[in-house]
Sequence to fold (1267 residues):
Amino acid sequence: MIDFINFHLIPGLVLGSIYALGAIGVTLTFGILRFANFAHGEIMTLGAYLTLTMMWLTGWHPLILLPVTMVILSLIVIGMDQAFFKPFRNSPAVTVVIASFGLMLMIRSVTQFSWGAQLQAFVPGIQRPNVFFDALRISPKHILIVISAMVLMLVVHWVLAHTRIGKAMRAMSDSPELARLTGINTELVIKATWILGACMAAAAGVFLAYDSHVSTMMGFQILLPTFAAAIVGGIGRPYGAMAGGLLIGVTEELSSYAWLGDGPLLEPGYKAGVSFAIMIGVLIWRPSGLFRGRVF
Amino acid sequence: MAILELENIHGGYGQTEILHDISMRVEPGEIVVIIGPNGAGKSTAMKSVFGLLNLTSGRILLDDVDITNTPPEKVVRQGVCYVPQTGNIFPNLSVHENLEMGAYVRQDDFSGRLDEIYELFPPLVEKRNLPAGTLSGGQRQMVAMGKALMLDPKILLLDEPSAGLSPKYRGEIFKVVRDINEAGTPILMVEQNAKQALGIADRAYILVDGKNRLDDTGKNLLANKEVAEMFLGGGKTEVKKPAVRKARGTPKT
Amino acid sequence: MDQLYGYSLYGLSLLTFGGIYAMLALGLNIQLGFTGLFNAGIAGFFVVGAYVSAILSTAPSERHIGGFDWPIPFSLVAAMVVSALIGWAVARICMRLRADYLAIATLGIAEILRLIFKNETDLTNGARGVSYIPKPYESLAQPWNHVMMTVVVLAIVAVLYFMLERARKSPWGRVMAAIRENEDSARAAGKNVDRLRVQAFVVGSAMMGLGGGMMAHHLKFIDPNAADPTTATFLVFVMLIVGGSGNNKGAIVGALLMWTIWSATEIFTSMLPGDLAIRSAYIRVFLIGLMLQIMLQKFPQGLFPEKRLETGSSG
Amino acid sequence: MMKTFKQLALASTMLAFVGTAAIADEIKVGSVAGVTGPIAELVVPIVAGRQMAADQINAAGGLLNGDTMTMVLADSQCDPKAGVDAGTKVVNVEQVVAIVGASCSGATNGMVQSVTIPAGVVALSDSATAPSITDLDDNDLVFRVAASDAYQGAAIAQLAWDQGYRTLAMTYANDDYNAGLAGVFEAAFKGLGGTITSNQMHEPNKASYRSELSTLSGNGAEGLAIFAYYGGSGIAIMRNALEAGLFEKFLAADGMFDQSVIDQIGADVLRDNIMITQAASDYDDPSYVAFAGAFEATGHSPQAPYAAHGYDAAFLIALAIEKAGSTDRAAISAALREVAGPPGVVIRPGEWAKAKAAIAAGQDVNYEGAVGNNDFDGNGDVTGLFSVNVVGADGKWTGNLIR
Fold:
């Protein structure tokens, strides 16, 4: 049982927190700009590399540099929006999604070109877990990741629920036409959306790198689970995305727990398929996400 | 001096012209109603004020200032508020947040105005923290109007505020419209329920096929024989109505 | 002289690859171009077709199930049938979804399919792939083996093209266009929209399966890496968008052109010295992304804009 | 738009110019590698190894009559589609006389079956290790200096047994290289009398492997054998296992052999706890020393997996061209066996001038490369030498040849 908590539940929570942060950006873009942004994975990757570069320059801890990364990444992402998404404001979703494919390829090659394909690590060496009650093993970095992710999610909640721009974002996600008729500056809201999404993407990328390592494909590798999290939680619903991220992360890790007998329930080779299977199931049976109805 | 004036406007969506030479004006303190058969361009005329369509000629003046083809977010800032027929609230935002969004362009403290709105629509007070999408049709219409009134607009545009409401709520909405007007806000309103609408209207325009057909005071039009035949008649119109509803269901007419 | 001969052989290779990609692009065109179905799981149907045709046509082997030594035409038909069946199942499940939801769902399904081929080692030899896949006319002497392979591929593309053009101009094609333009009014006109969409999806999937099968025969080897989404899905999108979504000629020209650009740019970048040559491989991917952006922003209709048919009064 | 076109046109003219300028007296050899794709990080030093061979040869008199040896890079992406395309390009457009590559077994399989065997071009892979390449019907046109997994798998099993391991858990990344290696290892270790407590395939490139490791650690194994690329999943697995305290001892093959394993996990943790086999020569062997010194000077680690193989492969091709005395593809293929094995004057890395003189004098040569003697067997495979590597006092890998 303790193995279950140590090796399945806690890793699931860590991974789930990372997915959740990524999914917030995906779901906001989906809700407000009305398209699935395939470049979001590469934005996370970019966040990790920016932090890595600053660590080389300053030697500071990645979490201390995270706010700086957020600012830089936000500026970059707003620039990308102006150059690559703004021309498609009135285009059908298909066109914008394909444009985001294009942007995905572009960011990835820039990352590979600038930093090389070689694997990098934030912090060399390993970190042994702290042992609680003689059995519960939690690594300090995991505590740090989960707590920071929770704090960031609270910040997102606060922004969306209590600030003028946050409410405007939700309003625009509800109805872009009415938002315009209400006098909401939609371009400003779009900028705010990219900033919030980029900040969370930066956090997701940095946490993922902090937990494992930095590589040019890291963001793309978690992109589909992130989409799955956003869909499971209900597109356009940041709170749902958070819950969806945790759910997908935990389920992925639990799928290979020995629920029946000694062997893993599902061959780990199929682990990557778990999130897609959940996502497809949700799309079929509850297309509006698991948390239909009142979301907050 | 008119608050709002449409001068000989022509235009429509994309290439298709729907409005062929429409003129109308709203004087301070007036309720002006637009009625007409389906497809006459009533809603389109109203949307033209909001820069939502492509005007090829004519001009629109707000307080003698030309606002032709100004985008909606700017028109709002000039003090014109518009309540569309459908999709006029943010369903996932609470009632209170919907009202706050109504005041989005205001930089000053608007808590006083909020209290006034709740006074105008008492049923909203206890629902203030519920998502607006969970409210009944009539209450949603109140939220929509309340949201529009948050700016204390120079003029309020209403697109069929009574559509789809039960007769009881319909009466209530018309009462609210009169209350708003009595508090000093001129209103331009499109309505299907011509009888009730003309009853509260100071003046009304009748549009047919994108052109002005008649205009007069509400009282005179109610007495007008042609108008009575077209909109106020007995069984004839009642039979027509379902057909009219259905046609209205097609997107964006 | 040798150089010229070499260029000709390379030209044949471009036509062969481009032609196989044209099958994928034509399949996508039915789904996305004609019907507006956003299938981002091309790689899934591709890999199904490739493996089915490969396993059926190879000689018996210990490494994977079979082979069954079927003649290539039969194995290709089987590849189309299996892809079509999977397409049908996917369509039944996902048809109600909005465009970009459909894209994500199909992308996920393609990934699951790839995982199955990778993990079911007893059936497919897993990650180590299937070897010794026969190739049409491979016993002929060079260059005729290449020539004949190219001829076979282009002949299939030509047949598909004429079939699709006929379909497009047929009542069926008009209804498809009407559905894409305005689903509600097509429904109101009494068309069974869902069934027609499923049909389009299935036909498109079968063509992607055919493309996958032809690719397996051309490569003579297939492994799950061949279903990498970048070259088996995204590249096909680029081809169709550049060529002109909704236009069959555009799909074919887009495939040939983009494959040529994808492949031939390397001839130039590999001339760069040392480290730059490696890095320029990334630049190549960058240019593909940039090209897609430029096309979408400046020429959203592609090289061959769709020829709109009169959809009639039903629309 | 027009401006973009003009810039593109300008760029391509410049490239074409560079191309024509270099054509004079050059002999092209294809260098096919998975530059982009799943093992991008491994490929950089391998290509550098190949290039260094060409650079040394050009500096020491060049090929035949002073011709330049040019390595033409083509990207096989670890994808058979790209492998075939890359092969077609170098064979037909670049008219290479022989090919070094491709990197991954899948891309190699496609390239040789579809392109190079029909075209009669010799392909010498430096890193494709799948056993399936051994029995290709290849008209003696497919060779490799990387030993088949069949050898290395057995070598690790023997090593584990000799070190006293009797029960092991194992996991492998599901790709062509590691799956093949793992299969051989499992059979060999069991054949020696060992027990595999648990054997799990894993999907590379996942963010966490903790749950897999928990299942693997269930039955009290003495250590974990990992078959993975260090970048794809190897480092992540070791990190997860150590951090969770599930395994302390590791065995691995050359896909894990990279300095970044030590740099990222930490030398102190790994010292005495990890053994990695690598296809390599004895580090004291003069051939290896000659290569390592020169390669380090180019800014790469000589220990990078398959970098030395890349060097040897390119050098062998050059020797075969020299021996054949022409750029005829068939003659080169025929000469390759002769220059690789005895008898003959022993040639070591960097000794191009010596080799050229010997061949000019009509003598046989025998290349003893950085990774071993490189004597091809009937299938064009090498037996390969393996070293066992542990973490040294200086935080670097130190290896000893397995005798």
Remarks:
- Residues 234-253 of chain B have pLDDT under 50 and may be disordered.
- The longest helix of chain B spans residues 167-182.
- The two ends of chain B are 33 Å apart (CA to CA).
